[in-house]
Specification:
- The protein is an alpha/beta fold.
- It folds into two domains: 197 residues, Aspartate Aminotransferase, domain 2 (3-Layer(aba) Sandwich), CATH 3.40.640; 134 residues, Aspartate Aminotransferase, domain 1 (Alpha-Beta Complex).
- Helices cover 39% and strands 13% of the residues.
- The chain is built from 17 helices and twelve strands.
- Helix 15 packs across helix 17.
- The structure holds pyridoxal-5'-phosphate.
- The site of pyridoxal-5'-phosphate has 15 residues, from helix 4 and helix 5.
């Protein structure tokens, strides 16, 4: 499947039924697997056999979803998790422990920010947040002796700034740490970070992968590119006492990281994706290429319409020429800027809150990335507990409206915004 174009991979890869087996990926709703004799089970426990032992660690339906994600991103292996947050947690804890340090771009998903700044801190893992506009030298200088990860997001939140992969990946190389990127909003259809020097990718599959707002899930994909035997990651190189001395780099080569994440961390923490969710995500991937194409064209048309609207003071979308990282977007997202845009309504916070009430087709939803267009006024909802000064420093301006542009006819979407903005803008 590797030699086919990504659209073909979405539709046909990687599930291959044998003669007489279901054409569509079946749901293996089983916790448990049966064997002929005890030697088969012994091989499983020694990690010499690739079949399944227990669904906390692996399951046939979940494996098919993982294989397809690895194919689409171009990685050597993938690990599904119960949510995007679980995927990020496992991705970091696989290589960091108390006393370690991570460097992260500051413009990341709010949940990830909290995980790094509050929960990891409690666990003894320290974080330094850097402005994504920091120079190469500033990024490198933020590293300490105990730094283990450089982290960023393809499309930042809420500024929708595009990650400068070249600058960050060069910095990670100099820092001698893996470069981990959250590619949720771009999906492998719009951006394949492994082609830009990234070592590990994570996704919240809850968003565009699902695409229909049915299920929570996450995934980690290993690019197989990082050399773990550099003195900083002894857990990947030295014998693992919980597997009678297995050595991940020696025994699993390029798949050392993703194997350890499964057999050690997923086994112990149990943040597992359910087979039914994996079935839905796998189904979602079959149309991801088509859906992303329309999300992108609809979002660009809405962004262009809003830019001309008298009731709108500013519009932020990666592929608008006025966007502050437009050149990076052109370079890294040549096929489209994804489906999220933000704009400022004239009349500030009051008008922003009022606008929601005047929308008919477009619904107020905290989620993003599904096929129905949705809208959110963060200042009066998700960020209402913050003071206005705190809101502004988090990038949440009082007049900011966030739109997740869906797959309805664009004329209907535009009409809905036009009527509502005319009714409330000052
Ligand atoms: C939603 C989201 C997450 C968290 O994923 P969950 O599935 O909600 O746990 C992480 N990163 C990004 C960019 C997201 O949009």
């Amino acid at each position: 499947m590797k030699n086919y174009k990504i659209e073909t991979q979405c539709v046909q890869g990687t599930y291959k039924p044998k003669s007489g087996e279901p054409r569509v990926l079946p749901i293996a709703q089983s916790t448990t697997y049966q064997y002929y004799d005890s030697d088969d089970v012994a091989d499983l426990f020694d990690l010499k056999s690739a079949t399944h032992m227990y669904s906390r660690i692996s399951n046939p339906t979940v494996s098919e979803f993982e294989n397809k994600m690895a194919l689409l991103e171009g990685g050597v292996g993938a690990l599904a998790a119960s949510s995007g947050q679980a995927a990020t947690t496992l991705a970091i804890l696989n290589i960091c422990q108390a006393g370690d340090h991570i460097v992260s771009s500051s413009t990341i998903y709010g949940g990830t920010y909290n995980l790094f700044a509050v929960t990891f801190k409690k666990m003894g893992i320290d974080v330094t947040f850097i402005n994504p506009d920091a120079t190469y030298d500033e990024i490198v200088q933020s590293a300490k002796q105990n730094t283990k990860v450089l982290f960023g997001e393809t499309i930042g939140n809420p500024g929708l700034n595009i990650l400068d992969f070249n600058k960050f990946s060069r910095a990670a190389k100099t820092m001698d740490v893996p470069f981990i990127v959250d590619n949720t909003l771009a999906t492998p259809i719009l951006c394949r970070p492994f082609e830009h020097g990234v070592d590990i990718i994570i996704h919240s599959t809850t968003k565009y992968t699902d695409g229909h707002a049915t299920s929570l899930g996450g995934v980690i994909i290993d690019g197989g590119s990082f050399d773990w035997d550099n003195g900083k990651f002894p857990e990947l190189v030295e014998p693992d006492p919980s597997y009678h001395g297995i050595q991940y780099v020696r025994d699993f080569g390029k798949a050392a990281y993703i194997t350890k994440a499964r057999v050690q961390l997923l086994r112990d923490l149990g943040a597992t994706m359910s087979p039914f969710s994996a079935f839905l995500f796998h189904l979602g991937l079959e149309t991801l290429h088509l859906r992303m194409e329309r999300h992108c064209t609809n979002a660009l048309k809405l962004a262009e319409f809003l830019s001309e609207h008298p009731g709108v003071s500013w519009v932020n979308y990666p592929l608008l020429k006025t966007h502050k990282t437009y050149d990076l977007a052109k370079n890294y997202l040549p096929d489209g800027g994804s489906g999220i845009l933000t704009f400022g309504i004239r009349g500030g916070a009051k008008a922003g809150k009022e606008l929601i009430k005047h929308m008919e087709l477009v619904a107020l939803v905290v989620h993003l990335g599904d096929l129905r267009t949705s809208i959110l006024h963060p200042a009066s909802t998700t960020h209402r507990q913050l003071t206005e000064t705190q809101q502004v420093s988090a990038g949440v301006l009082p007049d900011l409206i966030r739109v997740s542009v869906g797959l309805e006819n664009i004329d209907d979407i535009i009409d809905d915004f036009d009527k509502a903005i005319r009714a409330v803008a000052k």
